[in-house]
Structure formats: C-alpha cells, structure tokens
Design brief:
Length: about 270
Amino acid sequence: MDRRTFIVSSSIAALVAASDRVSAQGSPQEAELNAAFETIFQRFLDISPALVSSLGLDKGARAKIVPFAIDAATLEQGEASARAAGGVVAVRPFLPAVVGAVVQETLGARAMARFEEALSEKVEWFGSTLQAPAFVAAAPDAIAGGISQVLAAGARVIALAGSRPMDPLDPAFEALARLGATLVRQGVPAHPGSLVWLARVGEVPVIGMPACGLFSQATIFDLLLPRLLTGEALGASDLASLGHGGFLTRDMAFRFPPYRQARERGAVE
C-alpha cells in the first residue's frame, strides 16, 4: 500500500468511526460531521484519480481521459509534418565497407593483437572488414601519414586510437588539420565514451578514442559505428543528442549490438 492510499484509508476509517459514535449518541452534530466527511472525501478524490477509478466514480466531471484520441485537425497537422520530413523513421541497411585503424600508442605485441581482434570482431559483425592497423608514433606527421595510408588502401571509416582529447595540443588534432579534415565534434555527453571525437577527411569519417582497450568494451563508439557503417553523415547535433539516456548502464544495454551471445551487449571481452 502506498502512502497516499494509507492516508486515505486511515482518514476514512477514522471518520467512519467518529460518525458511528455520533450516530449512536443521537447528536445534532451528525449532519455537520457528514458534511465535513463529504468535503474531505471529495478532496481525496481530487488528488487520487486511482481512488476515483477504484470506486467507480470516474464519470462526469471526474471521467478519466485517456489520450488515445485527439481532434482531427491536430492529427492531420502531425501527418502533414511527417510527410514533409520524408517520414518519421528511417531504416538504413549496413553497407559492407573497409574500415581502417590508426594507433598512436606504444603497445606490446600481445596488446596490439587484442586490439586488432576486438575491433575486427565488431566491424565484421556488420559485414565489413578491418584493414591491418597502422601503428604510428604520437607525432602529427606520423599520424597524418597513417591516416593517408589507410585512406589509400580504401578505408571508408577510420578508427584512431590513443588520442588525448582533453589536450588541445594532441598530435592527432594537428594531424587532422594538416590533412584538411573537419572536426565534427570533440566529446560526447554520455558515459562511457565521453572523450570520443568525430572528424571527417573529405567524405570519410574518422572516429577517435583515448585508448585501445576501450574498443573491446561497450561505449559510445558502439552507438556511432553502426550509423557510420550505414553511410550516415553524422553531425555535431547527432552526437549531442546522445545525451538523452547517455548514462549507459546495464538498463541501456539493449542499444548496443549483440556481438557475442554469451557476452554483455556491446562488448567482446
């Protein structure tokens, strides 16, 4: 029983008991007590639609209005807006693509292999393929060269690992500037993955993450990758909108791709 129901039930019971005592004594105050009881009862009905329904009093001025019916003019306006926008929902197919990866971290052979395996598994789940990652030094020329290398090999989406998005002097951003890239957005209002950034070199999106290890986990990257692999050109507002439901707890796991049946959605380790 919730607090409101308890208060209502207790108050009504007390009033009924008081009414019985007054009636038994034949007091002339009975009419006054009944009027007070009616006033209090009506106030309870005003604040508790559930009580109104449970007592069968949801009619007339207290009739429950279920918002499944609207006036025709409003409905027609909504339909017209939807048609003008080209529809309310769009379903895009995943387009097989070559995905490139550039890594500016100094990793051991084992860590590099784990990174490549994790990213490859995610990319292949969508029907795309991952090129052999380009491991480069953390310097603007080296990173720019790595991006140019994977672009020349046909990459249509590029993942860049090992950047430091909080640092405006991060060589990854200097490398993008040297390539004439456009930085779409730096940072996303969601967690985990708030330090993700998105840029574009020509028509090719480049998505950056701070560390290689994050690619095996369920992060914002796993909400962006599917959209990029449909060919959608994401803008700053698209990334900003991820702030809705941006705390990606287990309750939000349904939003992630099920890369492995026996694993948490979005994760491959």
